[in-house]
Amino acid sequence: MKAAPFAYAKPGSLREAFALLERHGDRAKLLAGGQSLIAALNMRLATPSILVDLTAIPGIDGIQLRGDHLAIGALVRHREIERSELVAKHAPLLSQAAPHIAHVAIRNAGTIGGSLAMADPAAEWPACCVALEAHIVAASPKGERRIPATKFFKSLFTTALAPREIITAVEVPVAGANTRSAFLELVRRRGDYAIVGLAAHTQLERGALTRLRLVYLGVGDAPVSAAGAMEKLEGKRATPEAIAAAQAALEQDLSPAADLTHSAATKLHLARVLLGRALAALVT
Amino acid sequence: MDEFFEATITVNGKAVTRRVQPRQHLIDFLRDELGLTGSHTACEHGVCGACTVRIDGQIRRGCLMLAVQAHGCSVDTVEGLTDSGELGALQQEFHERNALQCGFCTPGMLLTAQELVATQPDATREEIRDFMSGNLCRCTGYQSIIDAIEEVIVTRRKGAQP
To answer: Which domain-ending residue is among A173, A189, A219?
Structure first.
């Protein structure tokens, strides 16, 4: 289908973008890579009166190492993250997750800022940012604030962003020598939305899992931290008993809804399978 | 809302300036305004890959990009890349191996495969499958397409050896 008519503006600064949002309010939609938005426009699931194209705004792209964190600009494309040596070295979870995002032609266009703002519960970056305890930097006419990713994703397509706020960057803590991460997804076909996915991140202290984060995608309205499973494993080695206890705990942690082809029970089973695989990957 | 924007886009090496409506997809601009009907339009929501074109050297979905977003960009289509000879080896191998039946998906397949050949010259068969996963074909069953791309990659690799 073709999109319904809309106006288009390409501001050259954040200030101009804020002015456009002020003027058009909820009738405006922000456009970055457009890989979700334009599909939604084509299907007329979204009918904004104006698109505000953010891609000419300076200073909100690029990947930089800044002390203890990696700053990834909102306009950085998925493919750029996938191929970045800085990311591979300092935030390997993101390098592991990137190839799972759709297909190359889409990764060449879609942006991390767009994905975070969209907050699709089956998307990869939201789960990764929660697992990494990243901060999302949002700008508004009142200034800038850093929102913990753990508090950013509220519900289906719903974030902590205020109506006139624009994501400018995401700040990811840099990995240390003991940091281990794994990103796994089960899909029916390569590039499809995940049936279940898992972003796992830990500090491995003499074989023990510490500060373990297990964050699922595709099993709820937002990224889901498996609190019970994390508690069962924290400070422990990934022994068969510990893994089994954590897998059992997922029953309380997750309540996935069935989709067209998988029952809730299947999804829960698959979440357990992924947990086993992720723990094996973390300790090898 | 009959607002128009003037967009200047370099298409297959030639700068064109046209007044476009914001809602017009790049793929429709190329096909309807410029008559470049080699790139196809099918699913119109980014799933099938038939509309794959190249923007500033990288493949994109032509249905998930507005013409107005391409202002200032360089766009290559199957027509331009055929004329320049860049797709020659792939086209020859697709022909040899019957890697197309109806041909509808072929322009998108060729553009995607060309980005693979250029960026991953050591790609394995598994990696080829992976890279091509965003382009759907309803006729061939994919085997012959993967075969053709693999052949081009293997031949190049042999040629690159001293």
So the answer is: A173
Question: Measuring CA to CA, which residue among A184, A51, A35 is closest to residue A113?
Answer: A35
Task: Give the minimum alpha-carbon distance from A54 to chain B in angstroms, rounded to a whole number.
Answer: 11
**pLDDT tens per residue, range A196-227:** 999 999 999 999 999 999 999 999 999 999 99
Strand segments, DSSP code E, in chain B are 5-11, 14-20, 52-55, 58-61, 74-76
Tokens of A45: 């699931």
The end-to-end CA distance of chain A, in Å, is 48
How do residues A234-248 score in pLDDT, each as one tens digit? 999 999 999 999 999
Q: Which residue of B has its CA nearest to A10?
A: B69
The ipTM of this complex is 0.96
User: Domain range for residue A49?
Assistant: 7-53
- For testing contact with chain A, the best of B8, B133, B146 (most A CBs within 10 A): B133
Q: Say how far residue A73 (Cα) sits from the centre of its chain.
A: 14
CATH superfamily of B5-81: Beta-grasp domain (3.10.20.30)
Residues of chain A with pLDDT under 50: none
